[in-house]
Amino acid sequence: MTLADSRIDRYPTRTPSPQAMLDRLDPTVWGEPESGALESLASFESDGYAIIDELLTTAEVADFSAEIDRLASDPELRLDERVIVEKKSNRVRSIFEVHRISPMVADLVHDPRVIELARHVLGSDVYIHQSRVNYMPGFEGTGFYWHSDFETWHAEDGMPAPRAVSLSIALTDNYPFNGSLMLMPGSHRTFVPCQGATPTDYYRESLQEQWIGVPSHEHITEMAEKCGIAQFTGARGSALLFDSNIMHGSASNITPFPRSNIFLVFNSVENELVAPYSAPASRPTYIAAREFDPVR
Ligand code: 6CS
Ligand code: FE
Q: Selecting from 2.40.50.630, 3.40.50.880, 3.40.710.10, 2.60.120.620, what CATH number does the domain 44-268 have?
């Protein structure tokens, strides 16, 4: 028996047959309650997310918007494998590892307004597991079906525990109608296993449209009835901090109003990736970093 075989998988998923939902085995907020940071995170423990109004100033939003537009229209970058395009329109949908491509985003990762949120929730030093810019263009921006990020990061990236947190910073106004993120409050306390094996090189399709690693209609119904559905709407510059295991998704955007955001995922340095728990091979490092040096 190899080490990999002997590893205990506390969150089994991508199994041949359907499995029952599991209670989360790990804390949500790992850091000690401190004054200050706690105020904006009061709801985080119970809901699995918190909204931070005006994380960025209007001027900073304008600068970041100009920066991501520059990236999206860079012909050279367009050929980079870290750029994901929309299936139909071939327009830029996401740019991964944006904190290594854009010095402005690299600075944002180190900004105390950002890094202190992650360190408080995760209760340790942190590193960037994944960063991306999401462009949800107007008229034909397609959304993401219901999923838990941790289910994917556990199965495909070998993330042991849900000790990671995402920060989605809105660079455009998030209205209820332009593809804004929907979340099920409190769903982070349940792990929803998914049925079906991970195909080889699945990331080449899943980042455009995910069809493995999506919960069953039965489980989605049960979670929605138990938790309800909330929507992240907020002005540009506001941000959504959310637990790696919360059930979320977004509708498509047929309005003329684009929805762009910068998406930073922090993982605890005490939660380093190991071999995938349920996939033939690890995903590229621009999707799941495998250098775990803490962000100082
Ligand atoms: O596969 C991933 O890592 C990405 N997929 C989705 C749908 N959300 C989280 C993450 O960025
Ligand atoms: Fe997601």
A: 2.60.120.620
User: CA-CA distances (angstroms) from residue 76 to 71, 110, 187?
Assistant: 10, 27, 41
For 49-76, write each residue's pLDDT tens digit.
999 999 999 999 999 999 999 999 999 9
**Ligand closest to the CA atom of residue 206:** 1
Over 90: is that where the pLDDT of 90 sits?
no
User: Tell me, what amino acid is at 75?
Assistant: P
Distance 148 CA to ligand 2 centre (A): 6
Q: Is the dihedral of CA 282, 287, 291, 294 positive or negative?
A: negative
**5 alpha carbon to ligand 2 midpoint, in Å?**
28
210 close to ligand 1 (CB < 6 Angstrom): yes
145: amino acid identity, one letter: Y
